[in-house]
Amino acid sequence: MSQTPGPRPDVLTDPAVESLLQDTTPWLSCEECFERMDTYAEAAVHDPQHLDEAMTAHLRGCSACDEEAQSLIDLLRAS
Amino acid sequence: MTAVRRDSSRDAEAPPASQADSRAPVGDPEPRDWVSALGGTGPEQSTALRELHALMIRAAGHQVWRMRAALPDPSPGAVDVIVNQAADEAMTALLGKLHTFQGRSRFTTWAFKFAILQAATEVRRLQWQHREVELRDVELRPSPAHEGPELSAEGIDLAGAVARAMSRVLTPYQRRIAVALLVDGVPIDVLAERLGSSRGALYKTLHEVRTRLRAELVATGYLPVSQAGPARLPQASPISPTDHEVSPTSSAGTR
To answer: Do B206 and A57 meet the contact criterion of CB atoms below 8 Å apart?
Structure first.
């Protein structure tokens, strides 16, 4: 399946502005996020109020890691 | 993965009774010693490998189902191939890191994340496989689409400040990465694959972009000081080596 994307507008939408200005401190790399993801997900299932500041900041700023963490939490909740 | 037969994607929906431990509540003790079984030999290892593969199928199936709307071909046959391939690759990755499992979580939870990562990455790759990824170093302008005149003026003002800050404090490489990821919506692992980079390296660039923009917007009065956050860059790297390798509007091509 081939898709031909149209010309991309050179505009800054509100979501793009919000994402560009996202505070992603304290720093956590994607690799560290993956390492912690299993314990983070189990903690989130046990206690919805569980807070891991670095993970939260990373997941705010990395939509791919966020999707995967939420998916793992959902899978555990369904188990 | 010669010791493991590919399972049908139906396994993802109805795992066999032998996987019942994977469905135990998260807080329950681990019902088996996966590391010993997988690292052993003989029938015990074969059984453990088979059951681990079924777990991988289940998690990969879960992930592909979540992202099915992004698939160019969401037919059951195509999904079955993606799920099995992701499970196989995730299992290989997991077995290569088996010695690093420290028991901080259940083994099954630890295993699931490998399959979820692999499946999600594969779906995003397929979603973009025929799309060109353009690295644009462009001057952005605020979007006129805002709700209400006040919000519109505020939003346009902030967006204009962000656009100016991007021109002023970012390197051309940082701008291209930021535009590709946050304006054009290219998934981070797709961009990493096209650039021969890694998700981690691009995220680090993005973190630097955000830190610089926030500091600039505090300096120009658009963000309060308390919102600047500590300027904790992972490592000082003013210009990535890739800066010199990417032309102003280079294309990362398609796969």
So the answer is: no
Total number of domains constituting chain B = 2
pTM: 0.82
Same domain, B23 and B122: yes
Reported as a single tens digit per residue, the pLDDT across A38-69 is 999 999 999 989 899 999 999 999 999 999 99
CA torsion sign, B9 to B13 to B18 to B24? positive
B47 Cα to chain A: minimum distance (Å): 22
Q: What is the complex's ipTM, to 2 decimals? A: 0.92
- Site of tokens 């353009």: B134
Q: Rounded to 5 degrees, what are φ and ψ at A68?
A: -70, -40
Residues B248 and A20: their CA atoms lie apart, in Å, by: 20
Give the whole-angstrom CA distance, residue B176 versus residue A48.
Answer: 37
Does the beta-carbon distance from B204 to A24 stay under 8 Å? no
Whether residue B255 lies inside any domain: the answer is: no
Please tell me if residue A10 touches chain B, with a CB cutoff of 8 Å.
Answer: yes
